[in-house]
């Protein structure tokens, strides 16, 4: 019988499952219709690292800022559901049309970057070498918060995807769910019709990836910078044995919480997305699905059939639903969906305290941000932690590197190799890091009231040591990405205008009183201008 909550049409067979889940603190999926009667296996998302008990640090268990950390603590093991996830994605791809690939998606990019617009998150900090401003609705969005960044310089040694170059990708998480996050009945989880009518942002939509390209318009010959959003998805099989998909969620809480996506790396065909407490999620550029193949949202295109043989249609105008509902496919209004194909989880139990920025010094780390180092052999994926030291938890955050090609196998554990260290930041707060030619660059967040710091470190006898003073950078500086051909170090700022009252603090003398430095842009510094 349909529920009064949107998309919570539980079959009677699932009632016992729901009761069993209640004992574990889990709830039924909030984002897609009719979870399977054999739940929770089909809809609980991967990776899911086992939880340990937080324990304050014992004496002598940590090496201090910059010291060596245990590589073994970073060991990743393949997700238990990787084979099943592959089968589901293959099945979903047999129903939904293919996008035609990254190049075709970019050719049809529907949004425009304004380079060097007036948005200024730098204030008293030096201006970057280049700055991209998104369209206004993205720049001020309370719902979508940008975090991770990567690009084609990570993806390919020649920095071209086919014939396409000058491509950046960034990830945003859904950080605002009005009506849902303060639901008086949190066990219900979803949005009511009234809440959705007030604002479709009520839904927890998970993570989206934005493809950006600077290019010459073939029709006009003029330079342009275009971009397009793509929703990330998790496939599952519902109670009618139909394949479907949901947005990304880090855990099936009474009201599901989204993946933060604090770092992303595009390497070859694969996109790796940081899942903070769990490890990595993996996506495939060969599996980007198109829910509006004729390019006209109003036509509600005819789509393929699943194993039931029923012809389905799509609807990208309705932003309130996701997955298959009554033989209609929805995607929160996004044309393109990129389903997760695999996962890597931490082998050690996750004992970092929940609801705190404190970090343990041993055991499973946090996957707060990731990046790629192509300047060494083999190419290495870098993973680091965002931490704030507290009493009993002195860790400033750990960081380590993996041979990234080993992550393509998914058949055996992968251990960090090359180096593993505690960050030298005495107060923690690392939002992103990238290594190039023996230098580690680290973005330190300083909140909304002052510019961030961009630090440089080098290795000396196995320790990370500071290499010159910090370079002031944007407020809300996030993940880092090295673009080798241009010699640029890319990042992005997360704060939207009006994020906090202190966004006007630490004013540049040349700016009017009341200038709001909480502004959301993509930007890059020249490596040659950073010293060291």
UniProtKB/TrEMBL annotation:
It comes from the Bacteria. It holds the Pfam family LVIVD. Residues 32-74 are annotated as: Disordered. PROSITE patterns: TAT (PS51318). Keywords: Signal. Residues 1-32 form the signal peptide. This is Secreted protein. It comes from Streptomyces virginiae. The lineage of its organism: Bacteria, Bacillati, Actinomycetota, Actinomycetes, Kitasatosporales.
């Amino acid at each position: 019988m349909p529920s009064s909550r949107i998309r919570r049409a539980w079959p009677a067979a699932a009632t016992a499952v729901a009761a069993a889940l209640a004992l574990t603190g889990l709830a039924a999926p909030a984002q897609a219709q009719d979870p399977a009667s054999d739940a929770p296996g089909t809809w609980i998302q991967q990776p899911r690292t086992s939880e340990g008990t937080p324990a304050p640090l014992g004496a002598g268990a940590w090496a201090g800022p910059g010291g060596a950390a245990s590589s073994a603590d970073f060991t990743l093991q393949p997700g238990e559901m990787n084979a099943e996830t592959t089968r589901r994605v293959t099945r979903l791809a047999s129903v939904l049309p293919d996008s035609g690939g990254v190049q075709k998606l970019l050719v049809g990019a529907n949004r425009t970057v304004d380079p060097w617009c007036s948005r200024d998150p730098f204030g008293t900090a030096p201006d970057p070498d280049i700055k991209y401003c998104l369209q206004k609705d993205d720049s001020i969005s309370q719902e979508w918060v940008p975090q991770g960044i990567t690009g084609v310089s990570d993806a390919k040694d020649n920095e071209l995807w086919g014939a396409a170059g000058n491509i950046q990708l960034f990830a945003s998480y859904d950080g605002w769910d009005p009506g849902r996050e303060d639901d008086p009945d949190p066990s219900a989880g979803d949005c009511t019709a009234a809440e959705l009518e007030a604002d479709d942002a009520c839904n927890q939509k998970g993570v989206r990836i934005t493809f950006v390209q600077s290019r010459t318009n073939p029709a006009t010959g003029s330079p342009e910078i275009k971009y397009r959003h793509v929703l990330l998805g998790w496939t599952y099989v519902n109670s009618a044995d139909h394949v479907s998909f949901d947005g990304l969620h880090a855990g099936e809480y009474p009201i599901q919480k989204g993946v933060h996506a604090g770092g992303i790396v595009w390497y070859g065909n694969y996109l790796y997305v940081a899942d903070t407490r769990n490890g990595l999620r993996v996506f495939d550029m060969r599996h980007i699905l198109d829910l509006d193949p004729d390019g006209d949202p109003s036509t509600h295109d005819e789509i393929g059939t699943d194993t039931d043989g029923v012809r389905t249609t799509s609807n990208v105008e309705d932003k309130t639903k996701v997955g298959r509902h009554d033989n209609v496919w929805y995607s929160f209004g996004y044309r393109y969906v990129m389903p997760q194909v695999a996962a890597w989880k931490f082998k050690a139990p996750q004992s970092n305290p929940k609801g705190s920025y404190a970090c343990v010094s041993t055991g499973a780390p946090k996957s707060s941000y990731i990046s790629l180092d192509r300047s060494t052999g083999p190419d290495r994926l870098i993973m680091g932690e965002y931490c704030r030291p507290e009493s009993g938890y002195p860790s400033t955050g750990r960081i380590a590197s993996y041979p990234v090609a080993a992550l393509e196998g998914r058949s055996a554990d992968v251990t960090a190799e090359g180096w593993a260290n505690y960050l030298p930041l005495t107060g923690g707060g690392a939002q992103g890091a990238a290594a190039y030619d023996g230098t580690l660059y680290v973005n330190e967040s300083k909140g909304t009231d002052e510019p961030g710091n961009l630090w440089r470190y080098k290795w000396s006898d196995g320790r990370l040591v500071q290499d010159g003073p910090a370079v002031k950078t944007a407020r809300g500086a996030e993940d880092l990405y090295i673009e080798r051909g241009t010699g640029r170090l890319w990042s992005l700022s997360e704060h939207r205008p009006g994020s906090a009252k202190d966004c006007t603090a630490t004013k540049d003398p040349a700016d009017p009183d009341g200038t709001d430095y909480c502004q959301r842009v993509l930007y890059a510094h020249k490596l040659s201008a950073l010293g060291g």
